[in-house]
């Protein structure tokens, strides 16, 4: 788990990038790490612009619309099980075949 | 090892219950009837998390969840939100679970509440709606298998998650809590706890002075008590050896019946909760809550009170019967057919319960109907079988599901009603046991031996009352001869 | 041969319905054009010629038999490749989905089929709609029809280039932070991002759900109104689809802006704005004033934080939306190796995604992670509230707001790919509309050194009518002539 940065400046270390990439399940090469490290820190430095704004009493806008309560009836509709299973890259019998778990 | 006092233990539970009465999944229109179905035949683009698809909340799932919240005395949120819980795992089609959250601005369905068990309140922390993942299986064990097989039929099934405060003090209390919860859900008609995997839970436990340990992967209520007992023993022995219990997550291994530490990278989860942008907030009005409340069926606590009044049962008996909906239903069905409710409750709370408990099943899993029990009770009333015989008839009924009269006939268990026949046997016994007869004439208590012999000779098929009468009748004749 | 490829859709529809033109001939001529110019422009990832010609013949038959035909009767439409089409591969311009054939249609595709539109093919784009130049496509970049050495804008670059070069009469794009308007501006066509909630997102492969909308990219404003009328409808499959009455937007094509109040947003002419763009847009505003509208400058202070807020929100949502691409159920999976699931996922995603996608996923994952959520995601969503409030305030004073669509002219291919931040800066004027959920249209207003300039008009939520009215008036009175090139 990543720890909270103490300094105000927004940066991301190579170790953090590696641990975040693992969390996001993206393998990155040494070369990519070098490149990303520079680029991501440039971007984060730019993002720190938002620190200027005081948003203490401002509510977030998770949804721009005022829509609420969009529901559906509990009624079974035909699904596309066969078509979906057909495009699974690796199967075994009627199962989706996943890599080993341990 | 010394016994641990209950005050030293704090147990909290996180229960996941499938809303098994729903026809469809939580966010798509796939059938939710996934048990015994061919793998991956109840999947659609939505529950498979295919590109471009969007979830839509099942209206009935919401109503069911509100009912649960009302039944558990929880405070229902006016405006609830769905959050994404992000983590990768092959049983999760989107690699995030649509769930709810009570931090970071999240508002789950309901907060607070309690369940009463034996007069004690176990507090509820929160109740929320979420989707079930698919199911993984392996050839062999998870450790040895070179691949895993995934069935996504279960993916997207509606779950309610109920999180308690750490208010339980013994593993037994945890089991009672779960049983009570199950009874409530079954009374509400929203979840059938006897379906495999329909109720699962995680537990957390701390012993005084120790850190909180979480136990995951408990697949049924029966396992909870076992897992907690194991964990208490484990932690206790650590403490006794002066080793500190660390805060960790352990998995319950059902086969080996032990908890195992999972110190892998996977443990370092960072779920990155954030509001689900594809689902709009749900406003739950006071009117809607009221309407649902009015339509709600009778709950176990109300039913218990009614049982005491209507059937004149003791509070303890009423509590036992309403602890399980199936049991309470069985009782009431039987009481409709036979107007001695206390007789019925006696048989249910003693004979039935121990049979069920031994096998870890519910009464509705039996092939036995209330009519079986009632017919058996009627045979006793009619004097066809004795109470003692009835017990063995019941065992047969439980095992075979046959009707009592059939069992009685098959096994020739009818009580001997022919007094002349009995007299002949008594005569024979008297001849064979002259000394006992002499004793019995002098000492009234010695009659018991003769009674025993008679029962033995008739394989208990004789009514003890009649047996006593005939023996005494014979003895009094003998004593008359002796004195005259 | 008459050049059907230059005609707008409403003309094509009229001619086909009047039996002056066979849909089959017209569609065939579009493919002929494609055969000529696609090698230079590369607007498409997948072409569906056989299906399109078959559909055209069906339409011709319907017309002949006087059956009812739809509002897009026979019109050839390019579909951005992040909109799911049943039976036609939908790649999102990604190696990850290179062979993905969805077994379902996006709602907008069903609508287009209902209206007898003809799908020409799937248009190129930046991978998963992440980019502003269509250079981040696994299938290679699209070239700007006005200057093949330059980018067409992005991420709907293929859609805009196809329309601008006569390879489609209409196109659908998607706009998360300007992805319709940017290429519309760079390619001198009309592009509209509808109000969030007006067009169903079902079947649109999500990049950032709370920001994006599908919208039309067309030759002119009338076509834009026509296509919008066909795709804007309530969809119960999309929670964020608004249930409002179906509208015929062509009725708002009114040549009258007399007395309308236009707000010229100061922040849209910030330091990164090229002089030629500023000049072009100011001229357009003067022209609108000639038509009787009033304009005044207005400053929306919160907009200076729009770009970082947009990227934080978009990347965060994307990191979660794109988690599903693990190669297990569909999509790219590395050849069977003995790795464990975590490693397989990590490799599938390493080789299945391009650099820009990986950058955004990593940053988005970071922005949502423990200890950072409040200072990034939450803060950005709060700034979004401020931006919404500023727009609300502005719309109390003005009917519409105006500014450049892009701060710069189309740039050279390769110019910004190495510097993501520079690329992001291109979106500075387009992202505010997405954050506020308001509609915005980009229309051409001229050329500078042979390169197109566009300006955008923004209106309050669900006031697409105002956008169309102002845009139509401008276009009618000050048409920007844009002759198709032959590329020979
Ligand atoms: Zn489904």
Question: What would a concise description of this structure say?
Answer:
Chain B has 484 residues and is an alpha+beta fold.
User: Strand percentage of chain B, roughly?
Assistant: 15-25%
Overall SS class of chain B: alpha+beta
Can you tell me the CATH architecture of the domain at 10-52 in chain A?
A: Orthogonal Bundle
**What value does the Rg of chain B take, in angstroms?**
30 Å
Number of strands of chain B: 18
| CATH structural class of the domain at 10-52 in chain A | Mainly Alpha
Shape by Cα distribution of chain B:
elongated
Low-confidence stretches of chain A: 1-7
Structural class of chain A: alpha+beta
CATH names the topology of the domain at 10-52 in chain A as: Histone, subunit A
**Estimated helix fraction of chain B:** 40-55%
Largest interface, counted by CB within 8 Å of the partner chain's CB: A-C, 57 and 72 residues
CATH superfamily of the domain at 10-52 in chain A: Glu-tRNAGln amidotransferase C subunit, N-terminal domain
How helix-rich are the residues of chain A, as a percent range?
Answer: 25-40%
Q: Domain count of chain B, please report it.
A: 3
Strand content of chain A: 5-15%
| Rg of chain A (CA only) | 22 Å
What is the count of helical runs of chain B?
15
How many E-type strands of chain A? 3
Please explain how this structure is put together:
The complex is a heterotrimer of chains A (102), B (484) and C (488). With 102 residues, chain A is an alpha+beta fold. Chain A has a domain at 10-52: Glu-tRNAGln amidotransferase C subunit, N-terminal domain (Histone, subunit A, Orthogonal Bundle), CATH 1.10.20. Chain A has 3 helices and 3 strands, in the order ααβαββ. Chain A has a two-stranded antiparallel ribbon. The relative contact order of chain A is 0.09. By secondary structure, chain B is of the alpha+beta class. Chain B starts with 8 loop residues before the first strand and ends with a helix. Chain B has helices at 59-71, 171-188, 221-240, 286-295, 300-311, 315-322, 325-337, 341-359, 370-381, 387-400, 404-411, 419-432, 434-442, 447-457, 464-483, and strands at residues 9-18, 57-58, 75-76, 79-80, 83-86, 96-99, 110-111, 114-117, 120-131, 135-138, 147-151, 158-164, 199-207, 213-218, 248-253, 258-261, 274-275, 282-283. In chain B, helix 7 crosses helix 9 (370-381), helix 12 (419-432) packs across helix 14 (447-457) and helix 12 packs across helix 15. In chain B, the strands form 4 sheets. In chain B, strands 1, 3, 7, 8, 9, 12, 13, 14, 15 and 16 form a 10-stranded mixed β-sheet that branches. A 3-stranded antiparallel β-sheet of chain B has the order 6-5-17, with no helix packed on it. In chain B, strand 10 (135-138) and strand 11 (147-151) form a beta hairpin. Chain B folds into 3 domains: 2-292, no CATH class; 297-411, no CATH class; 419-483, Orthogonal Bundle (Arc Repressor Mutant, subunit A), CATH 1.10.10.410. Chain C has an 11-stranded mixed β-sheet with strand order 1-3-2-4-6-5-10-11-9-7-8, sandwiched between helices. In chain C, 38% of the residues lie in helices and 13% in strands. In chain C, strand 2, helix 4 (107-114) and strand 3 (118-123) form a beta-alpha-beta unit. Chain C contains 15 helices and 11 strands. The model of chain C has no long low-confidence stretch (mean pLDDT 96). Chain C has a domain at 3-260 and 406-477: Amidase signature (AS) enzymes. With 488 residues, chain C is an alpha/beta fold. Chain C has helices spanning 9-17, 23-41, 49-64, 107-114, 157-164, 181-187, 221-231, 275-290, 306-321, 341-352, 355-368, 374-397, 420-425, 431-436, 464-477; strands spanning 44-47, 76-80, 118-123, 170-175, 190-193, 213-218, 261-265, 294-298, 400-404, 440-448, 451-458. Classes of the chains: A alpha+beta (102), B alpha+beta (484), C alpha/beta (488). At the A-C interface, helix 1, helix 2 and strand 3 of A face helix 9, helix 10, helix 11, helix 12 and helix 13 of C. The structure holds zinc ion.
